[in-house]
Design brief:
The protein is an alpha/beta fold. The protein has helices at residues 7-13, 90-102, 119-127, 144-148, 153-171, 191-199, 203-213, 228-236, 238-241, 254-257, 265-274, 295-304, 310-320, 334-344, 352-364, and strands spanning 40-42, 53-56, 63-65, 67-70, 76-78, 86-88, 107-109, 136-141, 176-184, 216-223, 245-249, 279-282, 324-329. The strands form three sheets. The chain has an eight-stranded parallel β-barrel with strand order 4-7-8-9-10-11-12-13, surrounded by five helices. A hairpin with a 6-residue loop joins β2 and β3. The chain starts with 6 loop residues before the first helix and ends with a helix.
């Protein structure tokens, strides 16, 4: 944003002249910095059996594990009441969380709407058995569901606040390390939908106040790449709001070859890096598709690194990008967790030749 245009004229040009952005004065002393290799550390995990890779937030100094636990795919079992519905397998979740924390994972990502609204509760039960300072907790303002149901204006604002406060109760915490505006630019829903959800009703003011009060430590958004104008809008506000991070769908296929979107993952990643916004990676396996490949392509990867799983290549790719702080994985079983721990304990970054190999494979895939 030009330093020669005043704030009100700038907001007016965006159609936001009535937006107060009350949290902005607290941002005056925040310093821009860019995440990179200098913010990476290899540190021994709690049990001494491995060396989890950690990265620092360039503004806050927060140290998070490069492997993050995505809580959208908790293991499920049949309910015992005979209803036929599925419920979270809490005992298995507890074991997975305990093992992850024991081996250095300290970042957990959930949402009020995951798993038929069961994810936050299950995460809260499992994580509350550990000291709060031992993990970083991320959840989301998932009010896109509320807006799609027809709520608008004051009703949407109040329902969004209810969702926010319920997240504290379900997660058994009094602060969130990371809080995201969920699903921006998704399902081809454009800028007007985002403004309706977060800006026209002044919900952004509430979230900024919550960050200033410390109940939100870092404020960001999750972007799926389908609507370019949404990203441009959010980045245009960065000098005022100062996004602490962004969550991005990123993998070695979508990096240059994403389909049905306005921007490839590389284009979004580069823009976020240019604006000094650290990246959290979602969908490093492209919804599981990169865990198994056509036989001929798998053979190329096995020849290069016979000891590695096919999935580990996707995780190494995402973790090798210097502005990535955490790579999320929805791990439903111990086998997946242990494989990812091997990949990131510690990370062996992709070489130039390995990046080229993955690019050649991506060009042959038909996703």
């Amino acid at each position: 944003m030009s330093k020669n245009i005043n704030r009100r004229d700038f907001l007016k040009s965006l159609g936001l002249a009535g937006l107060s952005l009350t949290g902005i004065p607290a941002l005056a002393n925040r310093v821009d910095s860019i995440a990179g290799d200098g913010h990476t550390e290899q540190a021994t995990s709690g049990n001494g059996n491995g060396s989890m890779t950690y990265r620092y937030h360039p503004l806050t100094g927060d140290k998070t594990s490069l492997l993050g636990f995505g809580c959208m795919r908790w293991p499920m079992v049949d309910a015992t009441d005979g209803s036929g519905r599925k419920v979270v397998d809490q005992q298995t979740v507890n074991r997975l969380v305990d093992y992850a924390i024991e081996h250095g994972v300290n970042y957990f990502d959930t949402s009020p709407v995951y798993l038929q609204r069961q994810s936050e509760t299950a995460a809260g039960i499992a994580l509350s058995r550990h000291p709060r300072e031992s993990y970083h907790l991320a959840t989301k303002m998932s009010n896109h569901h509320l807006a799609k149901s027809g709520l608008k204006g004051k009703e949407l604002y109040q329902a969004s606040l209810d969702m926010y406060h319920q997240s504290f109760e379900r997660l058994r915490t009094d602060y969130f390390d990371n809080y995201l505006i969920h699903n921006v630019g998704f399902e081809n829903r454009g800028l007007s939908f985002l403004k309706e959800r977060v800006f026209d009703n002044h919900l952004i003011d509430f979230l900024l106040d919550e960050r200033r009060a410390g109940r939100i430590r870092n404020l960001g958004f999750s972007y799926h790449g389908e609507t370019k104008e949404v990203l441009e809008f959010l980045l245009s506000l960065h000098d005022d709001i100062h996004w602490d991070f962004a969550q991005l769908k990123l993998n070695y296929f979508d990096y240059r070859h994403a389909k049905n979107v306005d921007l490839t993952a590389k284009q979004v990643y580069d823009e976020l890096t240019l604006h000094s916004i650290p990246v959290i990676v979602m969908e490093p396996l492209l919804g599981g598709k990169l865990a198994t490949l056509p036989t001929a392509l798998e053979e190329k990867l096995r020849q290069a690194r016979p000891q590695d799983s096919i999935a580990s290549w996707a995780f190494r790719f995402a973790g090798s990008l210097p502005n990535v702080r955490t790579v999320l994985s929805g791990m439903t079983c111990m086998e997946h967790l242990q494989d990812n721990l091997r990949t990131y304990s510690p990370l062996e970054p992709c070489t130039k030749n390995e990046f080229s190999l993955l690019e050649s494979i991506a060009t042959e895939l038909k996703y």
